[in-house]
Amino acid sequence: MRRHSQSNGVRLKGLSQSGVWPSGNPRWYLRQAGQKAIPMPDLPKGHPKFLAAYAAALAGKPVVTRPEAGSIGAMVAAFLASARYQNLRPSTRAYMRRNIEAIRATWGAAQASTLAATHIRADLAKLSPHPANQRLRAWRALCRWGFEEGAMLPSDPAAEVRKRALPASDGHKAWTRDDVQKFRDHWPHDTPQRLAFEVIHRTGAAMADACSIGPGMIRDGWLIYTRTKSGSQAVCPMTAAAPAWFEHDDHLAECLRRQPRHLTYLVTAQGAPRSQKAASQWFAAACRAAGLTGLTAHGIRKHRAAVFQENGATADQRMAILGHETESEARRYARSADLVRTVAGQVSNSPAQVGKDQASALK
């Protein structure tokens, strides 16, 4: 279907409207056959800058829409270039960037000096509780910087906005010992799914970290790594003597004996390291195939925390293995622990030291 719009009597072919900017201007897109739609700037269609952007898009040139001075778009651009943003951990920058860009797309043309808590609440109202709280973290970071360092806000409007209440939930469901056995019964040692499970089961690592763990990171029998999410350190006995509460086994060594050696343990069919997001989805499918609907890789981490508590590991020991920074976090992860086992201190299947064949497989 052919689209066109008129501006001062001049027909602008290919423009189609999709929504309205907060400024009240229509959101125009240039759509041409076989090409991705190109968004036009937040300006009236007859504005010289709009017409210049339209002409540039028709000519295949990038549409440059510099934000007006003092606008929220200008504040966003300055914040993204600031040391405060650049010094964030990569994982934090990733989610922050997604939300900041969403803020810029909706509110970029508005003047920063007019931003109020009511505008931020209106933005959050469109989202469910968890995404809304993530968006609020981005708003708070942006507004705090705009007030304290950017000198673009007369006050910090995000400070007045409260987080949304989350529904009662423990998050990822912890695995049980029966779940562990069911997964092992379904996936044999020579499958990548089983290897992924055993790496996470041994280390208690989150998927983001499990994807980067490899044999080159083991020193004197210990795996020591920095967690992607928190920046804290975690340690794990791989071939070193392990305490009884750890419940060391030889399943990971058996998997590694049957797999080609790579720089990381978790790899694709082509031998490339798995990405976190793709690996999480891939492993969730492996759980469903084993009849474990609703379980995820992160639930293994919670299971191991519970096992360590049942077997008498101290909070400091659990924190060191899982890379937790506070005792409250360690308690939260071990919430699924069997209280009877915790009191009785029942430990099973826990050799104090692995054999030489297992050590050579893990190296």
Helix content class: 40-55%
Helix count, DSSP H or I runs of 4 or more residues: 16
Shape: elongated
Secondary-structure element pattern, one letter each:
EEEEEHHHHHHHHHEEEHHHHHHH
Mean pLDDT: 84
| Radius of gyration based on Cα positions | 26 Å
For the termini, the CA-CA separation is 62 Å
How many E-type strands? 8
Main sheet summary: 3 strands, antiparallel
Structural class based on helices, strands and sheet pairing = mainly alpha
Strand proportion: 5-15%
| Residue windows where pLDDT falls under 50 for at least 5 positions | 348-361
Main sheet: strand order: 3-4-5
Describe the structure.
This protein is mainly α and 363 residues long. The protein has 16 helices and eight strands. The strands form three sheets. Strands 3-4-5 form a three-stranded antiparallel sheet, with helices on one face. A hairpin with a 2-residue loop joins β1 (4-7) and β2 (10-13). α4 packs across α6 and α8 (192-203) runs antiparallel to α10. The longest helix is centred in the middle third of the chain and has 20 residues, at 129-148. It is elongated and about 75 Å long.
Give the topology.
Layout: E1 4-7, E2 10-13, E3 15-20, E4 26-30, E5 38-39, H1 48-58, H2 72-80, H3 83-86, H4 90-107, H5 117-124, H6 129-148, H7 177-186, H8 192-203, H9 207-210, E6 218-219, E7 222-226, E8 233-237, H10 251-257, H11 276-289, H12 297-310, H13 315-322, H14 327-333, H15 339-344, H16 356-362
Antiparallel strand pairs: 1-2, 3-4, 4-5, 6-7, 7-8
